[in-house]
Specification:
The chain has 49 residues and is mainly α. The protein has 1 helix and no strands. The protein has one domain.
Length: 49
């Protein structure tokens, strides 16, 4: 493997990882965990703050 190919491959892996984290964060923001109704978390009106 040439150093150029290794650099491009490493940058590609980093880009894919960054994309995966961004998609995961976007999905969690759309549907926050614990608000589905069956998780036994207290509703918003009972939370302090």
């Amino acid at each position: 493997m040439t150093p150029e190919f290794q650099s491009v491959a490493a940058l590609g892996i980093v880009a894919l990882t960054l994309l995966a984290f961004a998609v995961r964060a976007w999905r969690r923001r759309r549907r926050p965990a614990g608000c589905g109704g069956g998780c036994a978390c207290p509703s918003v009106k009972f939370k302090r703050g």
